[in-house]
Amino acid sequence: MNINVRNSFIKSTVVFAIIAVALVAGIALETPVAGATQQGFPLYSWGSANTGRLGRVVDAANPSTRPARVVNEQNVESENWVMSSSSAGGSWAINNNGQLFAWGGAWTAASMGQNGVQPPAAFLDGNNIIRPMRVGTESNWVQVIAEASFVVLLNSNGEIYRLGGGGVFYPSVAVPTRIAGGSSNFTYMSGAPGLVFAANEDGEIWVAGTNNDGIHADGTRTGYSRTLIKVENTNDNWVRVDGSAAAVLATNENGEIYAWGNNGSGITGQGTTSGHTLTPTRIGTASDWVAIRVGAAAVVALNEDGEIYSWGNNFNGQTGQGIDTGHTLAPTRVGTASDWVSVGGSSQTKFALNQAGELWGWGGNGNGQLGIGTINAWGVHVPTFVVQTYGRTNISRGAGGTHTMMLIRTTPAEGNLALTKDLQKPMGTTTPNLTFSFTFTPHSFNDNTANLTPLPTIPTRTVTIDSSNTSYPNAPSAGITTTSNSVDVLEGIEFNQAGVYAWTIAEVQSASGIGANSNVVFSQATYRLRVYVAQEAGAGGDFYIYTSTIHRLTNTDGSTVTPPYKTPTLAFTNIYTRTRPADALAISKTVTGQFADATTPFSFEVTLTRTAFCTPTTNFTGRIMQGNSQVGASIPFTSGTTQTVTLLHNQRLVFDSLMVGTEFSVTELASPEFIASVELHVDGTSINVAPNTTPNTALPIGEHRVGTQSNTAAFTNNHNFIPPTGLSIADTSSTIPLFLAVIATLAFITLKARRRVEELPTRI
Does domain 581-719 have CATH number 2.60.40.1140? Predict the structure, then answer.
């Protein structure tokens, strides 16, 4: 008998996102991919039920000490949530359509976003909204964080908004209102009451709010800003920023942690609980941090080895060190386990998930917010098991100081095993339309490679990468952009007996749609997928997947992994490059103006820098052309090194072939008596460069990336000759007649004077 499976998501390899946004410290698990389509998940809540913040029917006077499902606006347990956040002021969540919902506060509160419109009675208990109620009409939200009654939002355009108010952000607003300053390329944000912290795709950190504790990192503790202002840093290589009401912590591309702000609870990691750190200062010497979460008084962090560290105030045991007094002033390991894959936390509680999908928590539990089934007035001081999970989401939030929300699966999911295709390409390269294929070769049943009959056939799966998939910069300093998409490999697969099923997964080394002048470096990684199927008790019990594992057999470059290691994700990474094969970049010179000499040389400083995917030995060759003829020998250019080139009138410097994404910058050096201007086109788009207004002034065009369309910089120099008379001679229609008139007048006066002299009588 063939029975449909009730599949679980990958139990022992899951990497779910802990959602633990503090009552006074907002924190996110992953950088959201703006505009990306997210898989929906169930939303669970537990802890204090006051004001309806749990989003389900429960006795408000009695905390809920175990996870249970939040219902949606139709009072149904929805599975389409992708992010959540909670605070003392209520609860907020975003669904996979990018819509924002709020509940757990009075409908008249600005932070609930109802803008004076009373919800239907079915959504209310008194004045409190008790079920998710939609906020506004926008459908492009990707991140939400709530602190008390101050809500901060990030949309798919990379813009930051607020709802409600707090601190210097007043008055409160009942509709999402954009916070000015910064740019429109933010990829990650965090917050605290009346404070905002954000990182953008350029590796910059921006902050807003009061500077009483030095969060502006400008060396002072004065002033405030209601707009986002940049934290000055010479490297600008930040990737994460989290903060509390008094301090900010950030990680950079090197895996280092920096902190600034109030040292009072020890969370700045400077070995003290007094004074302030007023500029970004490194914590310790480790450079392998992969995740960090900041609470109001304690920090939890995860390193590359799967170890958890914490520091800060031990009150309620939130550092996990087995004590509830004093302070831990430097990163200190929590327990001895090294299989952690995710961490999170709030002002009072901390959570972590291991490779087996087990959720553990510690810290404050006075309202059952740890979800372990008990209430502990003085907290839980060491990691304690909460629940087994079978699924995760990469983008989610949760955990106010007294209640918790998380996006997880607590029962086996059906047919969910995502195969992800990541396509890396140089910034500036248009996303291609490519279809990739993956094969599933039967390997064994119950580790017997000779008996493959029980294995169902998994057909070749395809993943398409095109412009509908959102691209995001994963290494801005290296000029790399990644575009991702995924497919469920177990969809429609049926099993009819218990056992361990195994396949070998590989990528087909070709793809449709690559096109001319383009190249794809395919992943040669291979994986072993094992699916563990069991049967429910009793005659005719259903077969179901209770766990799955993925082991990597070969790396992306095809090298053998010895021994194969377990990996939490099934992902293939390819590299896409494209070459502009003809006239990739042209820099031309034109000279105009009276008395201009076509033999006058003009000097240019030209710099080309290879993309991240070029070999370290990549150099470039340019040619000076006059018409269709080359002038002199070809000119070699070293990547990243400035070369000075001289051009005459009607000459141009041409690079015949460059990889799309190659950076270029050009500066025309100052030239006496000439005023310079330039017409710049990058990837076929006109870029405005203000012309010079005076002679003998250099004209830079800035840094740009070669695109697939026209890339040209056409410099024009106008001769601005000033003769001894002081009259400027330039190429204008009015100047020439005036100059000629002056010359004629002078000649006429001179002639008349001479004639008068010649006509005088001669004296004897």
Answer: yes
DSSP assignment of 344-362 equals: EE-SSEEEEEETT-EEEEE
Q: Give Cα 722 distance to the centre of its chain.
A: 55
Going by the DSSP 8-state scheme, the letter that residue 106 receives in this structure is B
CATH classification for the domain delimited by 43-407, as one of 1.10.600.10, 3.10.310.30, 2.130.10.30, 3.40.1670.10: 2.130.10.30
DSSP 243-257: E-SSEEEEEETTS-E
Q: Select from 2.40.40, 1.10.3470, 1.10.4160, 2.60.40 the CATH code of 418-577.
A: 2.60.40
Asked if the domains 43-407 and 581-719 are classified in one and the same CATH topology, the answer is no
- The residues near 153 (Cβ < 8 Å, ≥ 6 apart) are 100, 141, 143, 144, 160, 161, 162, 163, 176
pLDDT digits (tens, 9 = 90+) for 306-363: 999 999 999 999 999 999 999 999 999 999 999 898 888 787 899 998 877 788 999 9
Task: Find all residues with CB under 8 Å of 341, minimum gap 6, and list them.
Answer: 14, 15, 302, 306, 353, 354, 355, 568
Q: What is the pLDDT of residues 660-703, one digit of tens each?
A: 889 999 999 999 889 999 999 998 899 999 999 999 999 999 99
Identity at 739, one-letter amino acid code: F
3-state secondary structure of 743: helix
Beta-bridged to residue 476, according to DSSP, are none
